Amino acid sequence: MLADHTDQFPNARCARQQINNKTLAPVVPKLTRYDYTGLCKLADHNTDHPLRQLSMPPASSPTAVSPRSLSMDKRPKSPPALSLSRCQLYSSLSLFLISIFLSVLITFLLTRNAVRSQLQKTGQEAQAVTAKLVVPEGGIGSLNAGHDITRLRGSGKFLLGNTRQRGNETADAEVELDRKGSEPGAEELRLSGELFPIWYNLTLKVFVPGFGVHISPTLNLTFDGDLLLKFGVNRTTKRIELNALKLRFPVHNLTQYKLSRVDDDGTVNGQAPKVVGIRVDEAREKVFFELDGELTEGAHYTLRIRYSGPIASKLSGLYLTSYTTLSGEHKCAAVTQMEPTDARRMVPSFDEPEFKAIFRLSVIHPEGSSAVSNAKELRERQPTELAEWVRTDFDDTLPMSSYLLALVVSDFEYVEGNTSLGTRFRIWSRKDALNLTSYALRAGIKVLEFYEHYYGIPFPLPKQDMMAFPDFAAGAMENWGLVTYREKYLLYSPDLYTAQQKQAVASVVAHELAHQWFGNLVTMRWWSDLWLNEGFATLMEYLGTDAISDGLFRMDDYFLVEALDSAFDRDSRITSHPLFFEIRKAEDVTEAFDSITYSKGASVLRMIRAVMGEEHFKKGLNIYLTRFKYRNAEHTDLWDALTEAVPEGMKDWKGNNFSVKQFARQWTEQTGYPIVQVQRLDDRRVQLSQQRFRMDPDSRETPEAVQNSSAWEVPVQRLDDRRVQLNQQRFRMDPDSRETLEAVQNSSVWEVPVWWSLNGESEPMEWLKDNCILNATDSDVLVLNSRSQGFYRVHYSADGLQHIQSQLFRDHKNLSLASRTRLIDDTFTLAEAGYIAYEAPLNLSKYLVEEKDYPPWEMALAGFSTIQNYFEDEPEAGPMRAYIKQIINTLFERALPHIKDQRDDEEHFFDNLLRHRIVQRMCTLRDDRCISAILNIYADGFVRPCQSAANLTMSSGCSRIPAPFRALAYCEGIHYGAERDWDFVFRMFRIETVQVEKERLLLALACSRDTHTLKRLLSLAADASSTVIRLQDKPSVFSHVASRIIGKKIVLDFFIDHWNEIYEDFKDQQTLLRSIISSSIVGKSKRVIDQMEQFLRDNERTTKNLDVFKQRLEVLQTNRRWMDRNFAPLAEWFRQHGTPLDDDELFQPIGGPIPSPIA
């Protein structure tokens, strides 16, 4: 079963030791916020441990006497008449003080030689581990061949002792703490740059429970560190400044912080200052080692630091993950997640991307566990002086940023293979899931080899590990040499995963391995260029996934419905941001992990690749990666490298040599994208113009905005010798909303590339700018952005769109798949924004009855979904549902017979995906044929076999529903079922261990019609102390509840009522917090907007720094304007075009077509 509160599972186990709350209650500390952490803590609280024998005896014992009771109550009593003089009292006190002084003096004389010997030994060890690495020319992060750290390692002997069991020598009270109340400024949070790292030689002892090792309560779920840091000096200073958070530094003996000045070969050279104080600044997440002298500019030093820290319960730094085996045994593991700024939670370090350094790691861990890190292991599980502890030593890493540091201590097992060039490749998982790792192994090896060929640079590491974890906040993390994943993005089974989930595994693997070059080999200098790391990896994942699937996933077409569509949607809002913008505080970088950074970044790079040509683009990447390997770079460095690879003779719109830097700047340093408008002038000419999209085209910008009007440079594909001219404006999703003066003043000029075709024939690209005229007759079919390579939308004139529509009805295949996909998406979006009437996309969509390809259908279904979400449970929804049913009915009838037996495969990926989407949409329209079929397979394929199976059989083992329809069946079963259906699915959810199946069951729980039940579920998701729902999955509960008609009515109120608790629990998990906020703020009425605005006023302190609130408020306002503008005309249109419904269908009572099958 799943780990949970101990009062719910009194017999839950961590490793081999049984927990019993009743017997341990008097001595067990309060459980941590995650009760599986509490279980792990309890596991090693063994009363037979030698430490327990050192505790004070019971009060009834003869020796259990306090010093006061011994001196006052048990002393021999003096005769009543006897009294002491003042002189006698003074004499007694003097003798007492003299005896204390003599005791201290004798102790010092006895121990001074031992202390001196230990200090000398410490200094010798520090010299012994000094490196032979010379600080490379060119500054931080460069590497000269032939220089490396010596293979001699620090002994870490003090970590083998029980240093903290005699008392907490590293208490915070012993360190000078700086807890300034004011919020630190951006510059205060950055490192000064006075110093830079060369290498870290780190030994860690990790007290992770669950392996049968005796760990005292004081040490349980902590780690000890012994760090030897080599650094250089850029500017003279009298302090050593490092990032550190939640780490504890002993100060009882400052001489242990040994500072030595060293030569390049590690030889101690000259005197070095001494550490005379330690100051921990919690607000700025730093530690300062104050010195009694100056560090010399240009010199190199080593500093030895001993410290300790906690193994976290939140999913950052070095944290605890927990799971239950198939046999019911509770297991624990320690894993890291450092990006963006959490390496400082494990290592006092230069925790900024610019400070690349070499890491050498040794780990002392419990016997029975394995340690895995970035570098290849040199010695594994070597015995130590403590019988229950082993040591693993790792090779030196290549120079890398601290956010890529990774460590895992677990009992996981692996499968192994090798690439064609000999790189060892391993996939790790919990033992019960090892049979689900073979696909990831094949995919990883295949895509790594593909990237080596594509980049023209061999993979620089001797090994690549990938590990799957039950608890992981992000989807995956690209740590160099050790990529970590959430289980559902690395494991795969054809019986449990849909083809789209298989594609997701391949895509995430491809994305993370693309980072091994673009992000790890060459790294951004600062977080402002995060988009370059993530945007490029997103672009490459589509190529890599096609390499894995041999093209069967058709990723170039899939890009249109996934990355490009996501980027268009987010960047159409005024609350969007440029790709490149200043991130002043590292803590703000979490706001940049969004679809602009990933999807728009990939879309802009894809457009540049299309302009340059594939081979020239690859050549430019090779120049960039070769020039900056093992170093840091900025986006302008990439533009320079790509410009060097531009084909000879390629010109820009002015006729000058094409500059990637000049072109790309306009697309990366300003917000938004253009829409190209096509207007007919006469029967032989059309005029093209541009603007940024506005929801209200009649709104006017300020004079300052007009002066800084946006313009893009446009490459155009031509069909003949007729000329083209363009005007430009900037595209906005919501014209009613106003940009701030700052945003207007920062407007820049775009130069837009446009590809186009005439009568289905494509021509080479040309550059266009300003006003222009295109000679095209009124009988020609003109299509812009014909291959959907440009990052812009197109608004056709009414007659132009009519010509396109006629062509689609005559022969839709005369237009390319990309053209059809773009046409459908653009027309629905422009109607949503108010540029055109909804009649245009609805009429255009009628051709879909002949369409067989998935991408155009996906865009149309998304457009229909937008309308459906606005109509929801309004009385006018009936005709709307009837019309959409007409459009999709033919495909639905073809798909219906396959519901019980569909098996996904890569060869028919798009066909199966379309079939699943059609069935899903028909069920959301409440079609009785769809609901009945789904409820039948819910009963016959899930409830009956799982009820009749052996007790506690998991859904992944007993469900017979085809994987593509499981989520839908579970959801509809609960929606139409009784309370016992919900309870049954909840029980199955609790015992399930396969993550994709567990997720289906969890999301099905949000499909209930009962608001009380939904609030119970939201309460579990909002409570960070509950582990019924894993921390990483809590936002998805809010999202799924909010996606249902009934859920929308309660989720916002629940969120507002519980905001203070949600904020306190999730403020340190910004990604999860933003997801909860985004999912909860839904609605379309003025009442909701007023409610939200009042909430923001009442909670300004906790909401002001979360931009996601501004984004969601903009969406609410846009939704309200949509209702005002579109609802009544659309309702009338559907009444005229939708098939009339019988009253019985319009007013069908809530309830299932069949009774609940739960016994």
UniProtKB/TrEMBL annotation:
Coiled-coil residue windows: 1092-1119
Gene Ontology biological-process entries: peptide catabolic process; proteolysis
Manganese keyword on record: no
Main location: membrane
Domain Aminopeptidase N-like N-terminal: 197-404
Binding site for Zn(2+): H511, H515, E534
Domain (Peptidase M1 membrane alanine aminopeptidase): residue spans on this chain: 439-667
One matching Pfam family: ERAP1_C
Active-site residues, as the UniProt record annotates them: E512 (proton acceptor)
InterPro entries per record: Aminopeptidase_N-like_N (IPR045357), Aminopeptidase_N-like_N_sf (IPR042097), ERAP1-like_C_dom (IPR024571), M1_APN-typ (IPR034016), Peptidase_M1 (IPR001930), Peptidase_M1_aminopeptidases (IPR050344), Peptidase_M1_dom (IPR014782), Peptidase_M4/M1_CTD_sf (IPR027268)
MF terms in GO: metalloaminopeptidase activity; peptide binding; zinc ion binding
Residues that span the membrane, as ranges: 89-110
Sorted UniProt keywords: Aminopeptidase, Cell membrane, Coiled coil, Disulfide bond, Glycoprotein, Hydrolase, Membrane, Metal-binding, Metalloprotease, Protease, Transmembrane, Transmembrane helix, Zinc
Residue intervals of the ERAP1-like C-terminal domain: 782-1116
Renumbered residue ranges of the record's region Disordered: 49-81
Transition state stabilizer (site feature) positions: Y598
Keyword Cell membrane: yes
Known cofactor(s): Zn(2+)
Gene3D superfamilies per UniProt: 1.25.50.20, 2.60.40.1910, Neutral Protease Domain 2, tricorn interacting facor f3 domain
Cofactor note: Binds 1 zinc ion per subunit.
Domain of life: Eukaryota
PANTHER family, alphabetized: AMINOPEPTIDASE, PROTEASE M1 ZINC METALLOPROTEASE
Recorded family membership: Belongs to the peptidase M1 family.
Name of protein: Peptidase_M1 domain-containing protein
Organism per entry: Globodera pallida (Potato cyst nematode worm)
